Batch of 4 targets.
Target 1
Amino acid sequence: MLSIEDHQLLTLISQDCRLSPEELSIQTGLTVEYITRRITQWEDEKVIVQYHPHINWEKTGESQVAALIEVKVLPQRGFGFDKVAKRLQKFPEIKTVYLMSGGYDLALIIEGKSMQEVALFVAEKLATLEHIQSTATHFVLRRYKQDGVELMGQEDVPERLVISP
Amino acid sequence: MKKYLTPLVTEMPPSGIRKFFDLVSTMKDVISLGVGEPDFVTPWTVRESGIFSLEQGQTMYTSNAGLLQLRQALSSYMNKSLGLDYNPNSEILITVGASEAVDLVMRALLGPQDVVLIPDPSYVSYGPCASLVGANVRYVPTWADEDFRLRVKDLEKSYTPKAKLLVLSYPNNPTGAIMTREDLLPIAKFVEEHDLLVLSDEIYSDLTYAGTHTAFASLPGMRNRTLHLSGFSKAYAMTGWRIGYVAGHPDLIHGMTKIHQYTILCAPITAQYAALDALTSADQAKYEMVNTYNQRRRLIVNGFRAMGLSCFEPLGAFYVFPNISATGLSSEDFCEQLLSEEKVAVVPGSVFGPSGEGHIRCSYAYSTEQLKMALERISRFVQRRL
């Protein structure tokens, strides 16, 4: 269980991973030494997995296609779905792999430069893998919100008075 | 046409805030730390409930006192978070912001023969609202070296037998000061001994960053003497909804409700439904906002101290009140020169009363990026004068 201080520290880092230990120390009241030690520990333990910026690719004009793939898998004795999932996660085209409850087994998010590229990957690489029974591909048409960030309407920030009591 | 205004209005000085607002409005690219409201938008669940109430056709008057469900929810909120016990049927009145409640208290309790004691510095409305009913105002100074807490020794100096009402406003705007239970107990004793009533404006109570907030009405013997004021503006980022409340002895609430029914009739129904949702669904959103304010608070206090200015640690609201007298400037000159040289708007402490002189009020209801940029500019300005 995380302490309130550690939870606060991780939340701050997840919001802006560019903050230095000194800046984090000012904002949390924790010492620089504690923060540095804790971050190293979290990196070693893979609690902090990666630091990456959140990019809205649509705004760059570069074409980027994403699809959600529902996958039905024949579970393997002794391994369940893990063996297939581990194999799938090696593909760089597959950004996300989830084991799901409900009507299908694995949910994948695949990214590519075009619909054709994604479709080809699904048809040639994914659907032909052993133990995969079927796939259903849903292309993402528009992103409204991702990873907790609203991507639309953020330009219309309401203005406050410049001075108020 | 000025001759048609009553002397009370003519003699009322315009708010010092207004003067500074007009000055800032003429300039471009100003970073302002002058705003007394959250930078967050009202949590979506609350906004959505307001919208839903409109879709349902909830566009009528409510009872004068406000929706019973809202009063019931407030009663249990005050009980759970502050240990207060108010009957939703007779002891709670929903108002148009806590501001209306301030006006109602003054009008219901004070007349030309009465004196009201107001800590200085404090929010700009208390004095003028008291003056409008002809009451006399006596400001009670508070001091930076006592973290701007109200002390009995200062109350005693300002006291007159005509004093009827004491205003308390903690956590405080503009200083960010809080009063702990230990700080409040001697005040309660003084109130009891001098048979005073208390207007306790606790609108920033949820924005307390050390320990838990003590409601004045929860102190022994203070429940019937206190009108407990609060609202949704600060903790739930709902300033524009204009929704607040006052709780107190049924006789006093009844008197205030009479004024309210003739002047306002009722608080806006949409805001009342939104407020109900705030109490029932927005705890997590509130908690996250408070956490963020606390991080910014540390950042800005640290920033001012690093400049070499003395800045007491504010433990409530979202203001810091650094002492700028080391620069040799009055607070008004400091703000005007800072604005013209570095394009940063802060509010002179003197606007909030004579004891605010030598200080500036800076709000930290801004993003960390804006705060850092503003601190950099203020630091440049201060270094040129130290």
Target 2
Amino acid sequence: MNWTKKDLLSLYDLSAEEIQHILDTAAEFKKVSERRVKKVPALRGKTVVNFFVEPSTRTRTSFELAEQRLSADIINIAASSSSLSKGETLLDTTKNIEALQVDIIVMRHSAAGAHNFLADKLKCGVVNAGDGAHSHPTQALLDIFTILEKKGKIEGLNVSIIGDILHSRVARSNIWGLLKLGANVTIGGPATLVPKDFAKIGVRVCDNLKEAVEGADVVNLLRIQHERQKAAFFPSINEYANIFGLNEETIKYLKKDALVMHPGPINRGVELASSIADGPQSVILEQVTNGLAVRMAVLYLVAGAL
Amino acid sequence: MKTTTVPLFKEKDMDFMIANIAESILSKLTKNKLKDLAFIGIQIRGVPLADRIAEVISKKTGITPPVAMLDISMYRDDIGIRKTLPHIHITDVPFDLDEKIIILVDDVLHTGRTIRAALDAITDYGRPDYIRLAVLIDRGNQEFPIKADYIGETITISDDKLVSVLCLETDNKNGVYILPAKIGEGELIK
């Protein structure tokens, strides 16, 4: 297939074929990082701006390294140092970045849809590194890439996503991508954090951990954000850990060869016991490795469509 | 030269060219250097052609040189200039390139840009003693100062024609065809 999109906004916008094309491309880029010279000249002469209006360490580092391994020139702009703090609009700020002959803007923003708003107005490529609770396509792509690498297929697999689905862009992106590729997706967690409406798009909704993960091929645990606890979505962190945490006991519900995934950062002992996070079923660090390959593939494809 | 729906070169012509290339490679190698010989086929058709040359050498000498496959997409000089990017095919270099004698193999030598990209890629994998280029067809009109060391056939042909080498392994038939450049090889394979 021919990739023609200059932006990566959401997996919702992509066909199964397009998602598969990114994953195929990523498999070849993964090998670059395993070589003696971990760099290719694919984006030589291109400029990429990492514009993180919402703070990020792991995603930004991963994107930055991906750009370096593609030989792009890079500028990092954080919200605190940008003119947004002086009252400039998002469109003006990004238009100013584009006026510097930038080729791709990788952006994280707290407002859902910020990238969709900009993509049509900018000639440069726009890559979504997370927007509010809406979308985090490269995270879902790296999750799906990891599953595919380990299981050899996506279609027909039972994938359970456990935790704060309500506030999670990682969950939404995974759901879109996995459904398009034919997986059976279940979401689970406290009823306050697991919207029943998700059933309408073909996801099984559970508020009981055993039911949610029984027979799962993959369990993706989301971080329970301590800051959410103030809003009283659940009574206490301890109670969450007791009822929804994956540990030596509850992992028995999964298939024996099931994968345990987490987008990080982990709250050890809350959503995931240390012994499981470091155990044989965990692929958490491989997710990080694969994130680099997926981001290289996305940047390469987007640059090719400019 | 006119475009052809019958092949300009048939399977037996291709076999003959491959045997000749293998023979020439061997004639320039001393016996103790044979162990250092390795092939790198450029995706797509350079790979089966490299396999075939290596097989001829294996039959003649009893030593089977290793064959790597290389996709040069990440080393292209036209990303963002081409309308669409070509699909990236598998790169697999299963041996150390240091101190090897590398025969780089492609189906057609035209502009030389693919070879330039391949040379850049190879130097990122290791430091061979030397690299030589083998092509089935040299159609001339190079845009870079690149020449092949081993050539199956040299043909003179205008830029509005496409020279398409088909291989059994990738296209279900063998043969060299001349097509109008705008058709492309996809339609012939169908």
Target 3
Amino acid sequence: MARSELVKGTLTLLVLSVLENGELYGYEIAQRIRQRSGEVFAPSEGALYPTLHRLEREGALQASWGPSERGPRRRYYALTAHGRSLLANARIEWRTISAGVAGVVGTLTDA
Amino acid sequence: MPDVGPRTSPSPDWSQRYHFLSAIETRLPLPVDERREVLEEIGSHLDDVVDDLVARGWDAGAAERRAQARLGPPDLLADELARARRSPRHLLEAAGVSLRVAVSTGISGLIVGYAAVFVTAFAAAMALQMIGAVTGTGWKLQCTLPGRRGCVGNAVSSGIGLLRHDELPRQCLGLGRRRRN
């Protein structure tokens, strides 16, 4: 299975996680995910912006325009209270699922 | 028209950027202000990627192409963005607008249709009445509806009769030969 396929379903969790420590703009979010994964994977940039806009519509993120050093404005995203609560729940779900997947994969490896 | 400047990125060919953003713009069913903001954000992202790639030794044109490729096909990106921004409120508003248009079109169509039938019947009845009177052929309108008198009354009765699907010659717009003494 392609690595991108595995990452696709986790994009919301990854985005919420990297925004936990402060606001970031789109490209920074992609870069931060890449860095924190140890350069193992990077989110699809085509999927990143629809995810950010969906999370903003759902009230998990708040967007605001800020200046950049090059001229054009940048759109910064920050977690809302609802977003933090969503992140907490998503983390619990992720731990449950990843433990389950590890159990299955481990069993298959042992066989 | 998407705004691609002013920017300091080293992209040598803004037409590439323009075509990419135009393709997104044409598929974004959003208000002008929101559409402009989406395009500005995507443009800013492309600037960041191009700057990054150029700093790593890429040619500016190739960097622009690569930055766009990383976002995927513009029409697909636009569709995904439109879907992501579509709230239940937007859907209800769209449904409301469609319903209003359908109802108003239906009502105005009905009014115009009935008016056209009535005017046609009225004009035909008037014409027949006048021809009968002027040429003295002995033909006249014989309205059988009670209380209707004279040429205009006959014509109006004819129009009403048509709208009520009455038989034109027999019940309302009867043509008869004038009796001569």
Target 4
Amino acid sequence: MNEAMIKTIWAFIENYDKSKKVSYLISAYSILAAAGERGELPNFKITVWLPKDDGKEIRWAAYELTNEELPGFATNAISILLQHQELLLHGRSASLAIIEMMKHNLIKILTAIGAVINPFELYSAELTDSEVREE
Amino acid sequence: MEKKEITLEIARKYFEKLTKTGNYTYLVSTLAMLSAAAEEGARLKHAVEDVNNENLNEKLMELADVVAKGMGKMAVGEPAPELVRALLLTQKLMEAMQ
């Protein structure tokens, strides 16, 4: 996975943080899934958390995730995000907790694959209005 | 700089962003970074409340759970005082991790 893709993923996370639009997290997972399918990710093994949602109370199941399983996990994560985006729109507050935990997992995966370019350098590099006009 | 030190540094920056903006989604990012740093070998210099190096990962997970669920409450206008306690404990853990 090249640096441009890594920067794009961090920018999607920042956009999610600012807007709470789940589509940004879905986009970030999509890029990771594609990189995983192309075999571009280094070896890793981390613990991630998936919801065991019975409709009343959320519980979490710990899951040992490796690079080989990442495309499947990302697809599952996207499915969870889509489902809870819809439920959140209908006012189910528990869905926000699940979405936030999927963001938590995403950041842990990025760290595990060494994609820890400092996101704050990326944010500070945003173009100013005058620079945009010049371009 | 070691990998875990970079991860801890980014956690600190996310925490700063939380205190500047009041947006708790940055607390989730902070905890994710602390959890990743722990998986990379970061340890506590000393115990913080009931958290020690044996239960660090488990307690970080519990905190992430508290924050995620607290944010869900806030989204529908319910009070979530546990978020403040989680924020303070996260700050103490972050300062004690190396």
